[in-house]
Amino acid sequence: MPSADHELGPQNLRSPSRTVTREPSGRSPEHAEPSRFLPHVQGLRAIAVLLVVLYHFWPGRLSGGYVGVDVFFVISGFLITGHLMRELEATGGVRLAQFWARRARRLLPASLLVLLFCALVVGTPYLFPLSSLPTEIREILASTFYVENWFLALNSADYLADTGEPTTVQHYWSLSLEEQFYVLWPLILLAAAWIGVTRFRGARRRAVLVAIVAVTAASFVFNVIFTITDPAPAYFVTFGRMWQFGVGALIALVPMLQIRHAVGSFLLGWAGIAALVFTAFTFDAQTPFPGYMAAIPTLGAAAVIAASNADRWWYPTRVLSLRPARFVGDISYSLYLWHWPLIVIAPSVPFWGLSIYHRVALLALCFVLAWLTKRFVEDPARSWKVLTSRRPRVTLWSSLVAMVVVAAVAAGAWAVNAPAYRTGVQAIEQTRENPPECFGAASVLDPACATVDFGDQVLPAPGFAAADRPSDEQCFVQLNDTRPVTCEFGVDDPEAPEVVLIGDSHAFQLLSTFESIAVENGWRLTTLFKGACPWSTTSLVTPGAFGAACDRWRQNAAEVLEERDPDVIFTAALSTTPYSSAGFDSAHDAAVAGYRDAWRGAIDRGIPVVTVVDNPVWENDPNKCLRTRGIDACAGARDAVLSENDPVRDAAEGMSGVTLLDFTDVYCDDAQCSPVVGGANVYRDEDHLTVTFADTLAPSYAAALRGAMGRDGSLTQ
């Protein structure tokens, strides 16, 4: 998170190592030291914010750009610790109320402005899906009071995941974490200084240094262990990130870490920049992060800060001090605040989207808004005399009032839209329980429905499709989790036929439908799901911990299947899963072989397998189009959204013991595929089916399962 400590900006980025004198004017002692100017730190801010922004705009091109946030943590630790230590040595203490009041004046105006904007947008159904409103409001409230990181940690959000529906304010996790640092850090320094004075003969600085080393080391160990054991919340937990602030703090407190030697500074600075570039292009969503891997961008940022020599124009300190870099550094805080909500909101805006042209235009708009916010909000608020001329508590109380006002606007957005939200939820429930005749897939599969026309009807409504998903998330493991979690549904009779549903998220999307099928037919249903990890024996091309976790999960799942004797296994998989081509002519051939190998293990035991050709995959969620345009205008070209070489189809064709279902003609005609079939909204996002639509395929799924088990003889092979 780019801190808005612009009193720590170019004019005050000074070395903290020199002694200060008391200033009788009453002005904060942290401004009293005439130290050396370090403008390259402002340029480092520019690198950090550009990494984050470009990663969010083009995650496929800059897959590790999220490390920019780690760079900001190091910068904040360096700057804040230096300023606090100067005041501590000059006065023997820290004016906490004054310190926190300055933080509030510099951070809250821009932050609350963006939160207010988000509250108004998400409360406008024309601009934003209504189904997201409860989560949006909760996270806006959490962000307003600087606990968004804990909200996400407790809800196990995966910040780096490629799926899911991130909120407009999810990026406030880092701002919340940094504000918690601003509260805790001066208290830690004060406590350490007090111990140094009272117990160690006035060794204040040494005691502070020991305390920071201890906190940094403990935090790093905690971070590594927590990332291994529970990676999703580990990304957000405050104590797991304190070590990164501590690394910056150590540079501020240990003069020998600030390299002024020409050659040493040159090599160190460019090595730090190279480390940041390396992580930005090589890290991705599967990198175990933060964990020990976060040490690379953290130490890279520390190296750039420590490189202090600026004698030559080609030194990194001079390059990062150029006017364009310092300009981006100046607006980095507002740029960070604005870019993410605009990315989330843009595809919902009528006649807008996230094509390459839209992205470039939106990026330019982000810079404009950031500059305007810096010029007319951030800068004036820093010197607003109605606050600066009064005691710090006036600023703090005013800040609390402003936060309450933003929270009230967010609550008002919920109050206004709550009736419509409840109506939408009820409509989904009613449609599932009592669907219209010829609804959904039946309009294509049932010849008697050929003349039925649903017109412009879309159920569930586009604003609620994202909420129409299976609810049993505890059955769906993700990330580096290798546990073969099984869930049991259907009837309790141990003698009842058993169906196993196994695979990735495209198998999980059928869970609610298969649960109903199991209950209606008197079957037991057992599930095994892992996100982005189909039931196969071919490894993913994805490197690192995630690919290894997928392989391990498959082994564990195979052991579970060996212990059971199901009557039939059903599996589904995303057609665009990236498989390794090692040992084969192509990744497609490798995928086909992997599916057949996995299925053969069951078939050889006399267990039939049923699978299905994958549904079309869209570049953008078609609901964003359906909210503002007609059904026909939102159709996609068949060759653009449908995989003609689905490896599941090719693996199943001609393989004894495998039943293949193909609903391509339900989704598509010869030229295009529609997001609405028979009045049913097909998708809840870019590639996952709504439960409402999947339910309309239930008769076909049930018939295939019965046939594979030999219960009607019509589909056995």
Automatic annotation (TrEMBL):
Biased composition (Basic and acidic residues): 20-34
EC class: transferase
A single GO cellular-component term on record: membrane
GO molecular function annotations of the record: acyltransferase activity, transferring groups other than amino-acyl groups
UniProt keyword Transmembrane present: yes
Documented EC number(s): 2.3.1.-
Keyword Flavoprotein: no
Segments forming domain SGNH: 485-702
Residues passing through the membrane, by range: 64-86, 107-128, 182-200, 207-228, 234-254, 266-283, 289-310, 331-350, 356-373, 394-416
UniProt xrefs under Pfam families: Acyl_transf_3, SGNH
Gene Ontology BP, a term: lipopolysaccharide biosynthetic process
InterPro entries: Acyl_transf_3_dom, Acyltransferase_3, SGNH
Domain (Acyltransferase) ranges: 42-373
Record keywords, A-Z: Acyltransferase, Membrane, Transferase, Transmembrane, Transmembrane helix
Top-level taxonomic group: Bacteria
Region of interest: Disordered: 1-34
Full protein name: Acyltransferase family protein
